Model the fold of this input.
Amino acid sequence: MNLFEKLLYILQGEMTEPTAFGWFHILWLVLVVITILILYMRKKYHSEKQLKIVLGAYGIIALILELLKQLIWTFNYDPIANIVTWDYQWYAFPFQLCTTPIFVSIICLFLKEGKVRNSLLSYMAYITILGSIATILIPDSCFVSDILVNIHTMWLHLGSFVVSVYLLMSGEVKINIASLKSAIIVFLIFVVIAEFMNILFYNLGILNGETFNMFYISPYFISTLPVFDVVQKNVPYAIYLIIYMCSLIIGGTIIYCISKLLKQFLKYKVNQ
Done:
């Protein structure tokens, strides 16, 4: 092995697979609470610079961890035969609902305040937070034995949750119907891109029998998401796709309603 391959081999270090609300999960939940409290106390100092720091810290670290995950899952070393092989894991291609915050955060670093940036940040605030909440409550399917991948998973999902909450509590994303509509439009655009990729990659014949299911809406593979997998097995694909999109749109609307109620409650408490 060369030096690069040795580094990847080291990064494939393993741990006992974490469990829901075990020490590893709780540690990250504590870090989330502490970070949100710090950001909440600093919300009156919210500025363009602080927004860029939050987006940059999350997005750049998440991107680095994602690239490392892609590499260590592609790299394989047989210590007995002393053979290195590379086999890309198509199922792990980084274009899922929960990985889009990486791209959104980094893209928004280079955008000035305006309709495009506001729409992308609204998407993070109202839609991608759903995946983060799911991971907070039911992280079991996300945990593996790879140390780096578990760190990546927690940073990706829980870090994204922190950013989403920050965007709402700082006022960067307005809690109004216009922002919610913008978030839904961005979500639907990403759904179209994901479906295009699902169809294109499958028909290019490059998957070698592996799964490629971006946003878990491929017409060729059953979703692995809880509940959605059952739905897809029992209804026509077109109906499944509609149910999937409507479910996330309703979820985003619920986040909007909760945010609206919290905003009114806090405003009431301040005025008392």
Q: What stands out?
A: The mean pLDDT is 95. The longest helix spans residues 237-271.
